[in-house]
Write a structure and sequence with these properties.
This protein is of the alpha+beta class. Helix content is about 15%, strand content about 35%. It has helices at about 1-15, 215-235; strands spanning about 20-25, 50, 55-60, 75-80, 95-100, 105-115, 125-130, 135, 140-145, 150-160, 170-175, 200-210. The protein binds calcium ion (2 copies).
Length: about 240
């Protein structure tokens, strides 16, 4: 009886382990030793990556300037975005968007690596959607790096308290450029950097971590194990 209880207990624990649900590394599916070629298809899992607000994109090195967390060597691309809004306009209207179904999943945690150029917006805002259409802010505006053209790695947003994003086919998130807090203009990334629409934000290792919603079968097994233990104690 103890072994049954132990087994069923570990079945539940194992099913709650967080793992990568979807991840983009933007590297070519088949390495071609060229960082200016890559893909927006996920390297792990399924999902779609797109831009909002008419940004233009290209692939550029994920290794240069300190590098992202991507362990790839020789063909490490990142997703480069530019053509941001004119100064004083379009707050939170331009950025990157990722849609990932979380059906059967919970404890959603999103992370990404980002490299701002000197003239990119210093501030970004994380947003999520539960219907694939309407996005809402989550958390305060995120401050950019103190140094332009350097990687800020593993920025993390924990959505485990937002139950509406669990088990949801229409989950998605955006990172958009936003005005400096309390103001109506974009700040440049560095103190000396003057904001420009040609500033770039480069993304790598965009990752959605999640853990499976415990399956009823394992909960039933746990219940059976506990019942057996209770009987054993009562009989003992
Ligand atoms: Ca490539
Ligand atoms: Ca990469």
């Amino acid at each position: 009886m103890r072994s049954l209880l132990t087994l069923s207990f570990f079945a539940v624990v194992a099913s709650s382990q967080a793992a990568i649900l979807t991840q983009w590394n933007f590297n070519s599916t088949t390495s071609d030793a060229n960082t200016s070629t890559g893909t927006t298809a996920p390297a792990i899992g399924t999902g779609t990556a797109s831009v909002v607000g008419g940004l233009t994109t290209s692939f550029a090195s994920g290794d240069a300037s300190g590098g992202s967390t991507d362990p790839a060597v020789g063909d490490d691309s990142a997703w480069n975005t530019t053509t941001y809004a004119a100064q004083g306009t379009g707050d939170k209207t331009r950025g990157v968007q990722f849609l990932v179904s979380t059906v059967g999943q919970q404890n959603i945690v999103v992370s990404w690596d980002i490299r701002h150029s000197n003239t990119a917006s210093r501030w970004t805002q994380f947003q999520y959607t539960t219907d694939g259409v309407n996005f809402v802010d989550f958390g305060a505006a995120i401050d950019g790096p103190a140094t332009g053209d350097s990687w800020n790695n593993t920025r993390t947003v924990d959505l485990s308290t937002v139950t509406a994003v669990n088990n949801n086919a229409n989950f998605g998130f955006r990172v958009v450029s936003t005005f400096a807090p309390g103001g109506s203009t974009y700040a440049g990334t560095t103190v000396a950097g003057t904001y420009a629409t040609s500033g770039t934000m480069r993304y790598d290792m965009v990752t959605v971590n999640a853990s499976p919603v415990p399956e009823p079968a394992s909960m039933i097994a746990l219940g059976a194990g506990l019942l057996a233990l209770a009987r054993r104690r009562r009989n003992g």
